[in-house]
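Notebook, bench 3.
Goal today: get a predicted structure for Lysylphosphatidylglycerol synthase-like protein from Roseibium marinum so we can plan the truncation constructs. The sequence was checked against the plasmid map this morning, with no discrepancies at the termini. Length recorded as 297 residues. Pasting the sequence as submitted so the record is complete.
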Amino acid sequence: MLNARLALTVVRSALTLVAVVWIAAFFNQHREKLVLALAEIDPGELSSAMLWVLVGLLPGALAWQRLLARELPGVPAARGILVYLRSGIGKYTPGGVLAFAIQHRLLQAEKAGSILLLRVFMGTALAACLAAALIGVPAVCALIGVNIWVLGVPIVLATAAVLGLACWRRQWPVVPRILERIGVPAPVPFAATVAIMAGAWTLTGLHMAVLGLHTGASAVFLVSAYSFSAIAGIVFAVLPGAVGIRDGALLAILSLQMAPADALMLALLSRALIIAGDVIGTGLAALALGRRINAHT
């Protein structure tokens, strides 16, 4: 187990290093064309893209809140959503420890322990990966030149089979027991969480469609590419906020379908808007939580 964990750490670190170095080299090679590509972006498009990023925060917060409510039924839905948004900026600290610290502090009245919060995180992360894979099907099909139905239908059927684990409960009760221990809820709530996270990736990914209007790429591909790159950010993240690995994955996908300068422009703007969205979401949630506390005192 220790050797496997060490190997995974080495692989994740190596991939992140390669991604960061590649982005830097890509930037150095195409910086002049990048400036021209950025000049074509209208301020109104930036505002619209920022709005989609902010809107996309809400379904993600709802998915986390629903899993939290299964562990802590006494936490109101609005409070759970605000706690998640308030801790969003914490993922930009090493290991995301500040996010857990903020959640623990805000939920200390409900006695939310670190193990409980970790279980909620794991359940949300697994649902997010599955949702991102589903939304990412069009991008994968475009990259490998396969009709979407050839790849999409088997994936959807396989996903339905995985989410149908409820039928296994009587025959192999140990399966749901193991899944619940690592943070995966029962099949029906988990399927609902996956659906909500799919909505979150789609809404957030629309900022790519807005920014990529002038690149010639389809909106479906851009949204799908963003979602698929998020898997790398969840699974292989080493730097805080998945900086580097997610951006490298997104740049790699985009550069296969459009001009290098346009791909770099979209990857960099996407990262900037995502960080700005987390900062704004954290600030607004902090204000809302402060008002709720004052209203009850």
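Residues 2-39 form the longest helix (38 residues). The CA atoms of residues 123 and 185 lie 7 Å apart.
Flagging this for group meeting.
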